[in-house]
Amino acid sequence: MAIMLPLTSASFLFSFLLVVSLANSQSFIGVNYGQVADNLPPPSATAKLLQSTSIQKVRLYGSDPAIIKALANTDIGIVIGAANGDIPALASDPNFAKNWVNTNVVPFYPASKIILITVGNEVMTSNDQNLVTQLVPAIKNVQNALDSASLGGKIKVSTVHSMAVLRQSEPPSSGRFHPGMDSVMKELLGFNNATGSPFAINPYPYFAYTSDSRPETLAFCLFQPNSGRFDPNTNIRYTNMFDAQLDGVRSALNSLGFKDVEIVVAETGWPYKGDSNEVGPSLENAKAYNGNLIAHLRSKVGTPLMPGKSVDTYLFALYDEDLKPGPASERAFGLFKPDLSMTYDVGLSKSTNQAPPVASPKTPVNNPSPKTPVNNPAPKPQKKAVWCVPKAGVSDAQLQANLDYVCGHGVDCSAIQPGGACFEPNTVASHAAYAMNLLYQTAGRNPWNCDFAQTATISSNNPSYNGCIYPSGMGQSISNKLGSVVCLNRGVTRGKVEKNRKAPKYESGTRRRKMSSRERERDRDLELLIPVASGSSENGGSKSSSPSATPTTTPAHHSSREAFSKVIRSWASKKFMSGCVILLPIAITFYITWGFVHFVDGFFSPIYNHLGINIFGLGFVTSITFIFLVGIFMSSWLGASVLTLGEWFIKKMPLVSYIYSASKQISAAISPDQSSNAFKEVAIIRHPRIGEYAFGFITSTVILQRSTGDEELCCIYVPSNHLYIGDIFLINCKDILRPNLSVREGIEIVISGGMTMPQVLTTVEAQAIPQGRIGSFAVSKG
């Protein structure tokens, strides 16, 4: 059933606020800065190192004033910590908490951007019941101390948990906290919810692998091709351990009624070396985990239960800590060496900006890397053409997993789509072979790029057939962005295009690869130039003395000039249009911005004109300042009281109350501080008739009570004009298609008029696979 309701239009301010909201919805990558070492570089050098990377936040386990000072004016967010040993004093003595804040926070803020204070680390699983009972009082006293210093709304307070706080998390939808922790956990989560502070957790897929060292578990932990693990309660197939662990935590929070408490990953990482008896530590595994994790976070895909956003994640760790006890792996988590060079590259440098190309799954090796960290030397380039092909006897299920992995990580798989040069034969084996080789060629042509959990091998035999050309990296250009493969072996001999190009020995000539638009344009230009080239080459610059030669050469020269003129006109036209395409969005942006400044400037300009002050833009500056001051005033108790009183008067006024209520709901929906009221999920519904679909967003759910029973309906908002005018439908939640798109991607599709719509949409249901064995999702560090 579907119930249609009209939705009023919103003003231009909605679009403006939407842009601001999207711009501020970025998630950032942080790093843990441990100090259990005697060889660390000075804090000033570390601050410069961090500024050269894309790392936006740093977590300290204490509150070292030298580090906090060094990070001043860098705009790097800082998390400081109160030790477990400080908890009793913080809990029992409010003055101790005030002194702690006055010593560790007040002297440095706001020059040093302190954003969070963690009281204790993994206290709930410390087996110290006295410490556990004092945790929440200590946190509250620190919060009160911040309030006394007028920092309560600027710096959050929380604590950090290990994954061991979960009684179970397999499958993720069954995530629950240990029953014995319920009373303390509910009080703690109530504080998190009331103050907006995060629930900080330490998930380590590495430790999950050490307890289950099968090859498929390693691929699952490293974000690499695998068959996945199925959650029968939600019909979701998880393809990596990180998402599964976070969704286990999300389910546990939801089960206690705290759906709005945000999750922060306080620690996660992978060691790059270990003792001889340790399974998992290696340079390749560490690079794969951290590199793929960073790419996953930057994609903002999120987890199945938290789609469309990336959880703030602090990598472990900035440096090795050579004084830490335990196995060698405990001293080998560092991303950087004490000399500030990279242990291995995971794309954190601002010069690279993106994580390196992802590697295919590597067979687990129990032997650790050398004790002394070494840089991975760049592999020598291949001297001959080689291809990455599946091994004989590999099952279709394994090949399908490889295919899904490759095409889901930015590789251009259009050649094996319907109509593509390599679509036939339409088999999993054929499509996977092409895709696996393409990733191998684009990811660097290293041996580990052609492992795929021991399902692939490097071959010197060319697998190309008919019009399907497998790139080999020799004489071909492979896109650096894992994009399409473009052959550059196109010849022009003595000024004329080779109409019958030399085909490889495996090509029958009956079917050819589709040329790109750029190649077709280049061929057209070359064909237009044929008369010029042929004229010069055939005449050779010598004049004929025969009169009969004149009639034949004149048309040739005429056609040459005509062809040359046509090429010039075509070239000029394309360049002119290119300029228009580039300048048009810039012009529109400046025009709208200029109009907005004029509009806002008009609010206060009459006052200044009356006073004899005529400075353009002064009214705009005054308006912005006024809005800022209103925001500050309304965040106070007095401002909130005034706002409540004003709303009471407005709601008593006919007509005006409806306008105000609708406007407030719209602004609340796009407010970055009220994300719970925004669009929940992208949805596709069958409308208006069979065979047609409408694209929209789930905004809420409602229970429809009838005599025949209750029915759960989803409220679907379907935009009809950009994003802020549309219709509302109430549809049975079971009749809704949920595509694999984040809310952000959905908004971009609507704003662009569908131009950013992906070529293939997959629903959540289509991603489910038959239930198989599900390993442990929740493994804690320590």
From TrEMBL:
Region annotation (Disordered) ranges: 347-382, 498-560
GO cellular component: extracellular region
Reaction equations catalysed: Hydrolysis of (1->3)-beta-D-glucosidic linkages in (1->3)-beta-D-glucans
Principal location: secreted
InterPro entries named among the record's database cross-references: COV1-like (IPR007462), GH (IPR017853), Glyco_hydro_17 (IPR000490), Glyco_hydro_17_plant (IPR044965), X8 (IPR012946)
Biased composition (Basic and acidic residues): 498-527
Biased composition regions of type Low complexity, renumbered to the chain: 533-557
Protein name: glucan endo-1,3-beta-D-glucosidase
Compositionally biased tracts (Polar residues): 363-375
EC number from the UniProt entry: 3.2.1.39
Entry's localization field: Secreted
Keyword Ligase listed: no
Keyword flag Protein biosynthesis: no
Membrane-traversing stretches: 576-599, 611-634
Stretches assigned to the X8 domain: 386-470
GO BP: carbohydrate metabolic process
UniProt family annotation: Belongs to the glycosyl hydrolase 17 family.
Key words of the record: Disulfide bond, Glycosidase, Hydrolase, Membrane, Secreted, Signal, Transmembrane, Transmembrane helix
Matching SMART domains: X8 (SM00768)
MF GO annotations: glucan endo-1,3-beta-D-glucosidase activity
Organism this protein belongs to: Ziziphus jujuba var. spinosa
One Pfam family linked to the record: X8
Signal peptide: 1-25
Source species taxonomy: Eukaryota, Viridiplantae, Streptophyta, Embryophyta, Tracheophyta
